[in-house]
Amino acid sequence: QVQVVESGGGLAQSGGSLRLSCKGSPEITKIYVMGWYRQLPGNQRRELVAAITAGGSTNYADSAKGRFTISGDAAKNTVDLAMFSLKPEDTAVYYCKFASAILPPRDYWGQGTQVTVSS
Question: Residue 1 — pLDDT band, cuts 50, 70, 90?
Fold first, then answer.
């Protein structure tokens, strides 16, 4: 059974740091990009926080630049997000995603992990 499991969320103080980790089961293959998204309180949409390709190229939302660092290994089905200088507005449910190039292409999402930053 395909599983994507996130860990590392929790409570942090403003200015603090957290590290999120995500692991996909071996059934997920041909990963070409891995990403972290978040859903802000009261918002239905998930917004991109950071993404990394299998080749190591990264992309960050403006809100994450200079504060968050994404790392991942497509061969091991892992992706992490190191978050520093956290702000209360970073409070959200964070989701990881693996994008697979199998046919038909599909995305695999985790169940989400809550991050709460207190002021």
Answer: confident
